[in-house]
Amino acid sequence: MISNPTSGKRENYLNWNDFFMATAFLVAKRSKDPVSQVGACIVNQDKKIVATGYNGMPLGCSDDEFPWGKKTSNKLDSKYFYVCHAEMNAVMNKNSADVKNCTIYVGLFPCNECAKIIIQSGIKEVVYMSDKHAHKKETVAAKRMFDSAGIKYWQYIPTDEKVVIDFSEINWNEQRQVPETPQKMSQQD
Ligand SMILES: [Zn+2]
What are the φ and ψ backbone dihedral angles of 103, each rounded to 5 degrees? Predict the structure, then answer.
């Protein structure tokens, strides 16, 4: 473990950008989409997370009944008409009154539809990891709107390739043991 020689403070802790992007990647793991799992994390100016979201079917539209396919002869049988993108879900699921002046961290550059939602919600900054659809018209349109609306966007390069979540770092089994002494004391009371 690396720590500061003067104070002893641990130094290899997650920085804010890594933490928020890692949160977006973690919530993406909730997605049922077999091809594309995208997560988003909205952060306010106090560095507090006010929303997360991942791509999924609308409320009441069963993950098991609605289609997840991409290439179907009838577009009604593909996912495109139905799936809500991560950014939309994050904005709609916010636990704050609004997301004005917030920053959204998202795994993939927003599409044009999500760009509109981001702009209208008052979000002022977009931090993304992948811009793999940069050539698509949806992305070009999104950037055009962001530029016009004064939304800052920038690609985040993570400090490390991986952030590992290891449940065994804390011995949860040991913590679950009930201490004996307090029990005896309470019996005496
Ligand atoms: Zn979108």
Answer: -115, 135
CA of 46 to the centre of ligand 1 (A): 26
Helix (H) or strand (E) holding 126: strand 125-130
Strand partners, 110: none
Residue 14 CA to ligand 1 center (angstroms) comes to 28
Q: Is the Cβ–Cβ distance between 128 and 110 less than 8 Å? A: yes
166 Cα to the center of ligand 1, angstroms = 31
Q: Is residue 46 within 8 Å of residue 16, measured between CB atoms?
A: no
pLDDT digits (tens, 9 = 90+) for 32-83: 999 999 999 999 999 999 999 999 999 999 999 999 999 999 999 999 999 9
Backbone torsion region of residue 172, taken as left when φ is above 0, otherwise alpha when ψ lies between -120 and 50, otherwise beta? alpha
Distance 114 CA to ligand 1 centre (A): 4
Q: Over 127-160, what HEC string results?
A: EEEECCCCCCHHHHHHHHHHHHHCCEEEECCCCC
Phi-psi sector, 142: left (phi>0), alpha (psi -120 to 50), beta: alpha
- Residues tagged active-site: 87
CB atoms within 10 A of CB 70: 12
